[in-house]
Fold:
Amino acid sequence: MAAPSLEAVVSLAKRRGFVFPSSEIYGGLNGVWDFGPLGVELLRNLKEAWWQAMTLREDIEGLDAAILMHPRVWEASGHVEQFSDPMVDNKVSKMRYRADTLIEEYIERLRARGRTEEAQRWEEQLRQAVEPHDYYRIIVEAQIPDPVSGTREWTEVRHFNLMFKTFFGPVEEDSSIVYLRPETAQGIYVNFLNVLQSSRQKIPFGIAQIGKAFRNEVTTKNFLFRTREFEQMEMQYFVKPGTEQEWFDYWLQERYRWYRALGIAEERLRVKPHQKLAHYAAAAVDIEFLFPFGWGELEGIHSRTDFDLRRHQQFSGKRLEYVDTVTRERYIPYVVETSAGATRSFLAILCNAYEEESIPTDRGSTEKRVVLRLHPALAPIKVAIFPLVNRDGMPELARRLYEQVRRRLRADYDDSGAIGRRYRRQDEIGTPFCVTIDGQTLHDETVTVRDRDTMEQVRIPMSRLVEYVWERVQLPV
Ligand code: ATP
Structure:
């Protein structure tokens, strides 16, 4: 199965109303996207799949914290000081790059040309780079050219903080600065005690949250992969110190299984340990997906020790401890985090599902079919209903059936064009079932149900349709 090009996926997403550029009539806003009628359904289904996988468990509670938080939160979390990317400008083209990405892409090009030893040498240096000047030195020593102008005239590398700042209240002064959250996790940490006390959970337990996050990325690219506004699905699991490795292994497996259960192909998923561990992390791996532009992170699983709660305890002056009711032991829990991107996973789901195939027509020739092989639970429309022809009472009966079905399932009605065209339109948006009202329906009230993937048809009583589809579009457990 060949991977589709990103262009093919972007073009389908636009044409069929999955994703539009933000404020498009004004020329768009870089790195910001809107989800159209079908996109919002797919995104909601994806988030629902995650929400259920988390909160149907006994040991996980949900949360929806506000986007705006007390500015001290971001001092405690380290974001004010450290949440930055090294940035470099080319003096000729005026293009701005993330210095680490510029170097990584250069290394990729060396590899592609078979210059493996050189590639390894720079990779090693990149791994050790910490300060802006370390990146600058690599760029200069490796003589990396600007991909646009071809020149090597670079500015010094500087740190660039990725948090969006705004002002709280009517006065625009430093003391009223607040940030748009760059991750949802901090909302969970600062509510740790509230949830613990109100839910009667005992350690180990987790808190799950889905929500928007904002990062003023130096460069945005690859459609929904790296955007300035996106959505995250994060779960922080609080454990007893000493048990974190066990839970880390457990959650890595669970999360990998989740992507597989949603139909992501095994050969397009991999687990990659972090090469550089953050100063507080005991272990960290990424679950990656093979996008059309290469491997990219979908989700990070991090063993974060007690770093976050300890810092919030220190900065807020509030004790963030857990007391074991049996042993009376007191401790700050350790955290194992699963941090996924909802909008980034949406892109992975689209790329994974997109297929072009050629199929035989009735006339003996072949034609191209674009099909989104979405898991039925994720498909924006579950069932489409067609009258075979627009006469003999078929449209009326089909509409009546549609009116019944659409109250229970996301359904579509289509009576325009040849039946083959109507199938193609539904295949392209991943509708798992297409139902046709034909001559026989008028006599015995049965309909044909055509399966998107096998293209096989079965005949069932109209009265069983909702149940038939319903059973087949449930989320995997
Ligand atoms: P990167 O190294 O790619 O910038 P990160 O390691 O900083 O990402 P995390 O902070 O671990 O990412 O964020 C968790 C998840 O949030 C990522 O796995 C990704 O799915 C999602 N995410 C992060 N940044 C973006 C972004 N700019 N656009 C879309 N999704 C994002």
